[in-house]
Here is the input.
Amino acid sequence: MAETINFEEQVKLLVELQGLDLQILKFEDELKAIPERITKLENDFKDKSASLKKHEDNVKALQLKRKEKEGELQAKEDTIKKYASQMHQVKTNKEYSALQDEINRVKADNSVIEEAILNIFDQVDIENKGIVAEREILKKEDLAMAEEKKVLAASADEVKVEVDNLRVRRNELAVKVDKNILTRYGRISANKDGLAVVPIIDDSCQGCFGLMPAQVINEVRMKNAIVCCENCTRILYIEE
Ligand SMILES: [Zn+2]
Here is the structure.
């Protein structure tokens, strides 16, 4: 004689099993979110480091420009010296005053260049102040990130232990379920985000909220078989 199946008991087991499976799913989602969170932290930090690098590069470019301007200034100073020494050799007033005009013109150029150099110094000062502040912030954020990673890793460890415990309990429960019913439950569960067994409340399936025909409700009440919702295929039960 074939073993008779106590459908009422089987459905109760399934509801309990589903409760554990849903908790496992929730914890697995939490576990998946942890590396995503870490990646986001690292990417944000990389963006901020890139901004610091940009400011550092700006300073380098400004320093180069300053050296260039200083070179120009030096060349013009040399020109002035050259003209000044020529002044000793000129014969006429006209030549003398022409040289004097040249010297004045180059001196005027130089004051423009000097102004530009001072301006570069000011810009470098501003950039450097920003860089110091940014480095300080990055240092703090680096520490905060390390701390948060530690917390996340600890919480991942906890969740893993929790999931392992739930799996043990789940498997202990699963062996009590009839093989065919368990297979059916597993198939529906996989298709329905873990929600495979639902109650009928106010004549409605609580999976799809469709109204159940009286005949289906009767079949569920009789507990002689596994009864599924015709709309959503979920296994139905009625809470007494
Ligand atoms: Zn349904």
